[in-house]
């Protein structure tokens, strides 16, 4: 196997590995976006529940007022935590999108390099099939001129 063919084969393997990495990156991005959406929904539901519950409940005595305050506070805490988790998931999704873009660029570069290597291998094969390559003919003509022979270039 020629050097060019080996290079093309290595680049093809790297591309296949890159495609697997791309699928994993897409999965990670989808998971992060899904987590972001779930946390956003949880934050909104918790906040809405806390707001509605506070507006509807009337404290009859100190203990019921204390329970109402604790319950509302817990709902606000859940909402706040969900917002923080949403922001973390958003950051993760951004990182995953950036990694995916880098990976896509790398795959395009690998594909271009692989095609270049395949074309080089094909050129070398064609030169080999046509006989001696141009540098070999040139060398043959130089040797002939040194020895005093008259040699026509081969085509």
Description of the structure:
- With 155 residues, the protein is mostly helical.
- It has one domain.
- The protein is 88% helix and 0% strand.
- It has three helices and no strands.
- The two termini are 26 Å apart.
- The model has no long low-confidence stretch (mean pLDDT 84).
Number of strands: 0
What percentage of amino acids are in beta strands?
Answer: under 5%
The poorly predicted ranges are none
Count every helix, treating DSSP H or I runs of 4 or more residues as helices: 3
Short description:
The chain has 155 residues and is mainly alpha-helical. The protein has helices spanning 3-56, 62-129, 134-147. α1 (3-56) packs antiparallel against α2 (62-129).
Overview features:
155 residues; mainly alpha; 3 helices; rod-shaped
How is the secondary structure organized here?
Layout: H1 3-56, H2 62-129, H3 134-147
Helix pairs in contact: 1-2
């Amino acid at each position: 196997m020629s050097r060019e063919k080996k290079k093309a084969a290595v680049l093809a393997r790297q591309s296949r590995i890159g495609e697997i990495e791309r699928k994993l990156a897409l999965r990670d991005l989808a998971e992060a976006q899904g987590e972001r959406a779930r946390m956003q929904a949880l934050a909104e539901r918790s906040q809405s529940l806390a707001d509605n519950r506070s507006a509807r409940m009337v404290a009859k005595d100190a203990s019921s007022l204390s329970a109402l305050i604790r319950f509302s506070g817990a709902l606000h805490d859940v909402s706040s935590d969900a917002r923080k988790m949403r922001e973390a998931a958003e950051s993760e999704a951004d990182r995953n999108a950036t990694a995916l873009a880098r990976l896509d660029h790398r795959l395009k570069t690998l594909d271009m390099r692989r095609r270049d290597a395949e074309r080089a291998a094909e050129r070398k094969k064609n030169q080999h099939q046509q006989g001696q390559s141009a540098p070999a003919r040139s060398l043959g003509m130089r040797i002939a001129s040194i020895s005093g022979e008259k040699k026509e270039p081969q085509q």
